[in-house]
Amino acid sequence: MSINLTISHRGQAYSLSVLPNDTLALLQSKLEDLTSTPPSFQKLLYKGKSNKSLDDQITITEAGLKDGMKIQMLGTTPKELDGMKAVENEQQKRERIMRERARKGPTKLHSTGRATAEDLNYRFHKLVPLPHLPNPSSALNLLERLSNDPAIHHVMQKHKFAVGILTELAPHEHPELLGLNQNAGEQIKLRLRTDRYDGFRTYKEVRRVLCHELTHNVWGDHDNNFKELNSLLNREVAAYESSVQSGTNVLGYSGDVYEGPSMTQLDSFSQVLGGTSTTSAGSTAMSLLADSAEDRRGRALEAAEKRLRQEEEEMESSCGTAGRSAVTE
């Protein structure tokens, strides 16, 4: 007797029929044919379980899959990985430009200081920490930092995002969630705190979830439309910060920035390598730095791809916004 399964992947539902004695590997092979996602990149979630802890040679029955069961699949295609590599290459190009600009000295962007009434609408209109949780003032400070983040402000103005309330999720009330967007921007809730309430999650982690939830102002499901816009927002945040990193700090950005090595630092580096502090030695040090960077890029790219896959899985499985039914709750 066959077992009928429904697999949901990025807003698309697939119906599959397998036999009880078919292996998990066979199921994953069929899913690869349907979604172009290799088995090694597939993560199947069902009834609180995941295939990642199972041997792919066990049978469908042994894996706990039953007739009529619904499965959520997460995964990245090789084509998308190629896109990540292209983004990484572009980032490396920007970093080289940033280093050149850092050596030549900062450039400046001049703001007119004018803001229209329309511009003022595209922002977070109210910040609300949870008063019954510890240190609400610290939570408010984090919400204010997000609200005042120039890169976030930039994408909100560009895409005309308005959010009524920016508030937090209590870990004990929503342990499975990192973020939630209600009514397409009426209210966005973010997990600010650690599970034990002994501190706060890192700013970059929270901001990445915020970009994810801002995307839900436009798209409800985690489909390709959502993923394209979410990727665009993250690229725009990075591009904005790159412009700041090249010397445009007059706009008030105070986040993490890249600072190019000074000639004194290069001289010191050349001395550590056994060189001298002459101009030629400085050039030799820069060449060695570049060679070292090239050696690291392969490992960094592999780690970045793995991290992005893990972040995508975490974001989608820990986001409370999925489809218009959730957006309008």
From TrEMBL:
SUPFAM superfamilies: Ubiquitin-like. Residues 90-114, 307-329 are annotated as: Disordered. InterPro entries: Ubiquitin-like_dom, Ubiquitin-like_domsf, WLM_dom. GO terms for molecular function: proteasome binding. Residues 115-309 form the WLM domain. Residues 1-80 form the Ubiquitin-like domain. Residues 90-100 have a biased composition (Basic and acidic residues). This is WLM-domain-containing protein.
